[in-house]
Amino acid sequence: MVRGRISRLSVRDVRFPTSLEGHGSDAMHTDPDYSAAYVVIETDAEDGLKGCGITFTLGKGTEVVVCAVNALAHHVLNKDLKDIVGDFRGFYRQLTNDGQLRWIGPEKGVVHLATAAILNAVWDLWAKQEGKPVWKLLVDMDPRTLVSCIDFRYITDVLTEEDALEILQKGQVGKKEREEQMLAQGYPAYTTSCAWLGYSDDTLKQLCTQALKDGWIRFKVKVGADLQDDERRCQLIRDVIGPEKTLMMDANQRWDVPEAVEWMSKLAKFKPLWIEEPTSPDDILGHATISKALVPLGIGVATGEQCHNRVLFKQLLQAKALQFLQIDSCRLGSVNENLSVLLMAKKFEIPVCPHAGGVGLCELVQHLILFDYISVSASLKNRMCEYVDHLHEHFKYPVMVQRASYMPPKDAGYSTEMKEESVKKHQYPDGEVWKKLLAAQEN
């Protein structure tokens, strides 16, 4: 039963100094401090439940997202949760089409990250009130209700409401069995934790060896800064993991289009399944050119973690620019917009392999990919979800990975709630961790 009027919205700038040890480092982001704008919404309902939402950032700039959340807050405050979820499409459009704020978007950049954080908190609260994890809330939802959460504006040339409804109705067949399968076996994952660009060779070897022992069979390596270095590191990883294990590569937008093709033709000998983000995330035709050129080498193109919105995904699919589609739970407009992308991917029969890691991205995106398998794609072929083993200890309901698979969360909500102690400690710039670090820098 959905209840309560939203009486309070708070947002905090939470940062973790991951740059100190090179965690998260890649060819374009050499010193990321994994961070989040952390939103909490409260209602006047007697249950005392809170909705928690995040969007992921890399340190500097989190304060800008916090400003954007505060600028959007008036759309949420004093609204009945029942009215929001009763017309979720209308509420989504209200948030994304604020007549003044949309000028610094629309549906992209900082203002869209802020939208995601707020909507993630709304979904968390809704699921908590229903006593279900978000994936289960979605799986149990009537197809018409699901469709009513989606804004189809700008994508009806590819996906209409009728198309979406048909896909979801077909997905009802075998749904119960797929849910039982997920509860027993989990959703297949791959690891990025072993091969950040800033790691030494010894660290690489050690982490890959340990990952193999832990049952990992799919690995991703960061590439793109220096070709000889890439060749050496890829050889080192192949030597440890062997020729049969799956290897993916990620250039994090480092190359121009011709450079991407040339570079990957040199790395093809390491048999990568895909090259991720080979060029600018906005360059749809560039991705299409790279994709076509790499077909003879047996290398797919994966992208999506920095796709602003459903329209970019629509065009990537139309242009045959990718073989693996990577949704992000905090870059797009929360569950609502991700639903539209999952449905478009199904229509084009392109596998979804979500982006995860960062702060809480694994916690959130597990819900979306479980729903995708159970209710939409009904397939595990060429599908896997990224896993990065950082910062889970700061969450109240951390992700559970067993035998290199995501085990479906059982706790109600979107797994977004952080431990209050962690938030206080890592709040920027006044938390204990940052006070010490900033004082040390001054000295």
UniProtKB/TrEMBL annotation:
The keyword Magnesium applies. It is an enzyme of class 4 (lyase). It holds the Pfam family MR_MLE_C. Its cofactor is Mg(2+). InterPro entries: Enolase-like_C_sf (IPR036849), Enolase-like_N (IPR029017), Enolase_C-like (IPR029065), L-fuconate_dehydratase (IPR034610), Mandel_Rmase/mucon_lact_enz_CS (IPR018110), Mandelate_racemase_C (IPR013342), Mandelate_racemase_N_dom (IPR013341), RHMD-like (IPR046945). CDD domains: rTSbeta_L-fuconate_dehydratase (cd03324). Residues 201-296 form the Mandelate racemase/muconate lactonizing enzyme C-terminal domain. GO terms for molecular function: L-fuconate dehydratase activity; magnesium ion binding. GO terms for biological process: amino acid catabolic process; carbohydrate catabolic process. SMART domains: MR_MLE (SM00922). It comes from the Eukaryota. It catalyses: L-fuconate = 2-dehydro-3-deoxy-L-fuconate + H2O. Keywords: Lyase, Magnesium, Metal-binding. Its EC number is 4.2.1.68. PROSITE patterns: MR_MLE_2. Belongs to the mandelate racemase/muconate lactonizing enzyme family. ENOSF1 subfamily. This is Mitochondrial enolase superfamily member 1. The gene is ENOSF1.
